[in-house]
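Lab notebook, entry 398. We have the chain sequence and a SMILES string for 2-acetamido-2-deoxy-beta-D-glucopyranose, and the next step in the workflow is to get a structural model of the bound complex before anyone spends time on docking refinements. Request logged below.

Task: model protein plus 2-acetamido-2-deoxy-beta-D-glucopyranose, output structure tokens.
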Amino acid sequence: MGRTIFLLISVVLVAYYVYIPLPDAIEEPWTIGRKAAIVKIGTDLASFGELLGISHFMETMQLLMKFQEVPPTSDENVTVMETNFNSIPVRIYIPKRKSMTRRRGLFYIHGGGWCLGSAALLTYDTLSRWTAHKLDAVVVSTDYGLAPKHHFPRQFEDVYRSLRWFLQEDVLEKYGVDPKRVGVSGDSSGGNLAAAVTQQLIQDPDVKIKLKVQALIYPALQALDTNVPSYQEGSHFPMLTRSLMVRFWSEYFTTDQGLEKAMLLNEHVPMESSHLLQFVNWSSLLPERYKKSHIYKNPTPGSSELAQKYPGFIDVKACPLLANDNILRQLPLTYIITCQYDVLRDDGLMYVKRLQNVGVHVTHHHIEDGFHGAFAFPGLRLSERMQNQYLSWLIKNL
Ligand SMILES: *[C@@H]1O[C@H](CO)[C@@H](O)[C@H](O)[C@H]1NC(C)=O
Ligand SMILES: *[C@@H]1O[C@H](CO)[C@@H](O)[C@H](O)[C@H]1NC(C)=O
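Result returned:
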């Protein structure tokens, strides 16, 4: 009897976790399905722990991800070390082969919704190691304070402090980096931070060394409209659903669930900030083919109190799409990846459009069979394809 019940429960659980609907266009569904099931088990555990009042959702997730971290080990091609830049921990990857000239430098910012992840995660360690070797570049992979322990602007400020430290002539010289060939790159919330610090840097008179390129991999770029078409379509996209993305956004600013609730309803931007909505207006910024049958609706105004308490969500340092054209015009050469099956797709598409409108050189790769997380997804052919495109662009432009 006990065994039958156990068997039944197992079958139900397996069926529940294995059945994750994926869009038809997505290749290698089994590889993705397996990982998606693990992510779902993790998020369900974290939700359960939170429901019971045992632990904050993100803290459980952080604990689960600790097991995917690896030590900084050098290999035959790359020397790996850890140090601090302006008291921010970083992992540095330096190619071992001799170089007659100073190398490129790439400053990498990991993703994880401002709450999760680190440079030590196996996926990021592998990516940085590979990039350093293939690009013959010094890669600095930075850490930063994470929510819920730290909220905005801590993440932004940590990354900016670390980057500013790197961009000093004597520091670049120490690592053999050519000051004329430094770029930033990041994925997801790391793409958000990459875009934000790149904007900050062009307005900072104290930093003489400027960036040559920015590479943004499915970046999050705005928290004002959570009903852009990709958010509306994305309730079942693999890896990152609309509700999880809204949770990440609101957690970036506060653990107060009032903000999360308002953002889920798309009723969080107060009347007095409604002029900012023009910068994230998908009706005017999204190419026709992505609008499909979606009808644009101005978001319902939210309470002023919420925005006064958590002004971060309408701050350009959190939402790089809110920058005005004068800032955007000065941005360096830009590379942007967007994926079709990604809630963040339209953020990237709108940024491409706004940058092109002011004459910034943008290389845009839209991945028709791509989804959020595909770029650094172990063992996936699609991931290899995306990384190789990215590498070719960096070889040519950095
Ligand atoms: C080192 O580089 C060589 C040549 O690119 C490659 O075949 C080898 O697999 C690399 N080693 C590691 C540990 O990545
Ligand atoms: C967005 O753009 C559409 C048409 O391009 C316009 O009708 C609408 O008023 C705009 N909304 C905002 C909030 O800017």
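Notes for the group: The beta strands are 78-85, 88-95, 103-109, 137-142, 177-187, 213-217, 333-341, 362-371. Worth checking against the assay data. The two ends are 66 Å apart (CA to CA).
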